[in-house]
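step=encode ok
step=design start
structure_in=
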C-alpha cells in the first residue's frame, strides 16, 4: 500500500471532518503552559505543533483565542494520542466556548455636594 493509499484509508475511517488552519494556541500540560500552532481541528480532535514535546497519554488543555474575536476563546480538554514530527494529536474529551471578561472599568461618579 502506497503512502497516498494509506492516507486515504485513514481519512475515510475518520468520523469527523478536519478543517486545516493555522491558529496560535496555548497548550497546558501539568499546569505548565507552552505555545503551539494548530494545524487542523475537528469535533473529535486537534493536531498542533507545540514548542515542546508532550508525551502520549498526557492529559492536556488547549486554549485558542479565536482570531478576529478578541474576547472569544475555545477551551479544549483531551488526551495526547500521537506525538511525532507531524505534530501532537489530541483526542478531544470535551470543549467549550468561553467569553473572556473585559478588564475592570472604574466608573467616575459625580461627587455629591452638601447643600447650604
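sequence_out=
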Amino acid at each position: 500500500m502506497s503512502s497516498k493509499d494509506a492516507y486515504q484509508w485513514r481519512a475515510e475511517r475518520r468520523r469527523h471532518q478536519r478543517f486545516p488552519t493555522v491558529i496560535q494556541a496555548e497548550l497546558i500540560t501539568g499546569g505548565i503552559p507552552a505555545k503551539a500552532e494548530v494545524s487542523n481541528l475537528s469535533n473529535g480532535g486537534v493536531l498542533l505543533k507545540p514548542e515542546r514535546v508532550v508525551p502520549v497519554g498526557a492529559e492536556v488543555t488547549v486554549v485558542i483565542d479565536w482570531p478576529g474575536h478578541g474576547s472569544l476563546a475555545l477551551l479544549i480538554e483531551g488526551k495526547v494520542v500521537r506525538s511525532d514530527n507531524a505534530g501532537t494529536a489530541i483526542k478531544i474529551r470535551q470543549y467549550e466556548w468561553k467569553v473572556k471578561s473585559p478588564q475592570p472599568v472604574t466608573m467616575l461618579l459625580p461627587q455629591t455636594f452638601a447643600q447650604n
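step=design ok
step=annotate ok -> Confidence is low (pLDDT under 50) at residues 107-116.
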